[in-house]
Design brief:
Radius of gyration: 18 Å
Structural class: alpha/beta
Distance between the termini: 15 Å
Number of domains: 1
Order of helices and strands: EHEEHEHEEEHEHHEEEHHH
Strand content: 15-25%
CATH topology: UDP-N-acetylmuramoyl-L-alanine:D-glutamate ligase
Low-confidence stretches: 189-194
Number of helices: 9
Shape: globular
CATH architecture: 3-Layer(aba) Sandwich
Number of strands: 11
Strand order of the largest sheet: 3-2-1-4-5-8-9-10-11
Helix content: 25-40%
């Protein structure tokens, strides 16, 4: 059992952010330590917005409190996802800087900014993720749109995603990049039939040049929280001792099994598959 600190959103209804990370990591036999950046009645897919971000001073006090209690030294990994404000970045950077000063695990950054061609955080927050958190990350898990935002390049297919990731790896001291929801080829006039529909999947690019493409199943679809699920699974498998490449392949396959079984785009079929996560940890 490993301690994994998860800093991201919390919802009462639905499965995104810490509502995914908590059950997933517990089912995998790890100890999730969760700090919420924002608390909402339900994720935006339900319509409307009820709740809001944790005040910056309270958020900072929680992170400081973990260190004061001596609870950060044996944390195996830190994950950050959706943030509630630009001010939260200061506290996260302070925690990471202290944690990384000693032998530690991986900082996994899920740079939650937007999807489908649009930002759904402020430009200031997106810039803070790119300029302050990205340089501290060991592994990042952007979707295709977020990778484009981080790299400043257009991404239309597998090759351009790989090129953008390779560029980021030359600019930062990261070990690996996992891109979710990558379209394997540009959609063109000759790809309008089912037979020519491009694949969608996840792509791993490592500093040593390793590339692994894991296409989704034939029933691939976009379900809220899918990226959060893959990141939590990857973190759990990594904490269990799997190598990065193996943890990625297993996380991608497991995530797409759950996504494919989800009846609507609004919610993951997560609770129904917690037993699968426990079984996946068996030798």
């Amino acid at each position: 059992m490993k301690k994994i600190l998860s800093i991201q959103s919390s919802v009462t209804v639905g499965f995104v952010g810490n509502a995914v990370a908590g059950p997933v990591l517990l089912a995998m036999g790890h100890h999730p330590m969760m700090i919420d950046t924002i608390s909402l009645a339900a994720h935006p897919g339900y319509g409307g917005r009820a709740g809001g971000p944790l005040a910056d001073h309270l958020f900072a006090a929680q992170l400081d409190g973990l260190q004061d209690l001596g609870e950060t030294g044996d944390i195996a990994q830190i994950m950050t996802g959706y943030l509630g404000s630009v001010g939260q970045i200061d506290s996260i950077v302070a925690l990471l800087t202290s944690w990384q000063a000693e032998p530690s695990g991986h900082y996994i950054l899920d740079p939650v900014m937007g999807d489908a061609g649009r930002l759904y955080v402020s430009a200031d927050l997106a810039d803070g993720i790119r300029t302050r958190l990205l340089p501290l990350a060991d592994i990042i898990t952007p979707n295709q749109f977020e990778l484009a935002q981080l790299s400043g390049t257009d991404i239309t297919d597998l090759d351009s995603a790989a090129d953008a990731a390779a560029t980021l790896l030359t600019q930062h001291a990261m070990t690996a990049i996992i891109i979710t929801g990558v379209i394997s080829a540009p959609v063109g006039a000759d790809q309008t039939t089912a037979d020519h529909k491009p694949d969608i999947g996840d792509l791993l690019i490592m500093r040593d040049g390793t590339q692994v493409w894991h296409p989704a199943t034939s029933t691939a679809k976009n379900v809220a929280g899918g990226g959060d699920l893959l990141t939590a699974l990857f973190s759990g498998y990594l904490a269990s001792g799997l190598a990065i490449q193996d943890a990625f392949s297993k996380a991608s396959a497991t995530a797409h099994t759950i996504i494919a079984a989800s009846p609507t785009p609004r919610d993951l079929a997560l609770l129904e598959h917690l037993g699968l996560l426990a079984e996946s940890q068996q030798p």
